[in-house]
Amino acid sequence: MQYSNIQFDKNHNVEFYKTLQKRVRGYFKENQITRYGDYRMVLKTIFMLALYLVPFILLLTVVNSVWLALLMWVLMAFGMAGVGLSIMHDANHGAYSKNKKVNSWMGAVLYLAGGSDAMWRIQHNVLHHTYTNVTGMDDDIDPGAVMRFSPHEKRRKFHKYQHIYAWFLYGMMTLMWITTKDFKQLYRYKKMGLTQTQSGSYNKLLAITIISKLLYYAVFLVLPLIFTPIAWYFTVLGFFLMHYITGFILGCIFQPAHVVPTSNYPLPDESGNIKADWAVSQLLNTANFAPKSKLLSWYVGGLNFQIEHHLFPNICHVHYKKLSRIVKKTAEEFNLPYHSQKTFWGALKVHGQMLKQLGTKD
What we know:
Helix content: 55-70%
Low-confidence stretches: none
Number of helices: 14
Strand content: under 5%
Order of helices and strands: EHHHHHHHHHEHEHHHEH
Structural class: mainly alpha
Largest sheet: 2 strands, parallel
Mean pLDDT: 95
Strand order of the largest sheet: 1-2
Distance between the termini: 22 Å
Shape: globular
Number of strands: 4
């Protein structure tokens, strides 16, 4: 089914989102603040980019031991994940700044991680946010045959072990970005007519993807191979370790927000209609976690408040915690669910339970 044919029910619980939007607008107006980022985003941007790039510079200039080199790669992993979660994510949603050029520049930092901002916007903004947990439309629940993230996908015998091996495969996420994923997505999104949602033709996007990958490898792999005075295989190991840790972090942040027992995985009927308002569907298929953990929330760019992010993706994450009180109260007034795990570990636990359930039951 084409993505453009799927429609949410505009006559079902639509008053919830209208009321919520009015209250959120009132919050910003009453407090005389903008929905975009502020000085906190600037400080975080400096910190996260430094956490990623300073160890890299040290790797090329002063590091001369294997263990110190590996430590630099590990620090870069936490920096890379932080850049993606706290900077690139808001920017590609247009929430970092009211200046579109600033959003474009900050969104392009994904190239520093070997990814493609255009492919990310299609997968995340267009498909995931519009069709959250809709099988066949949401790429975030379509990791291929190796894992089963939806009850509507075919269950294979080896899926009964996915609650064990999934954690290891999460580490491969960004390694897939820097190799094959962006090219496969570009070809598939062209066939779906989605590349036209981004600036530039298919050929231009393909050229940018190829050139950006070559530059990424030249800078972040070839230069360390040349300038770091350790055996080449330790540099390759460090590069792999950086991406593996980054992928693991990202997997552990994003998947427990949607692949959980409370999600209902909506299916469109033959006409492409989903019997739920879009905003209500977000509540049904999204979960928060660790709302009281300031450090975690700061590091992951407020994505522990996934409900707020999905309902208001164009609002910067620095506002999510305060908005969560408004969202929760409004959901309760309309007798709608507001799923939230008290701790991060609790979220990982229920995600693991869901993986086991999906691996053993049809």
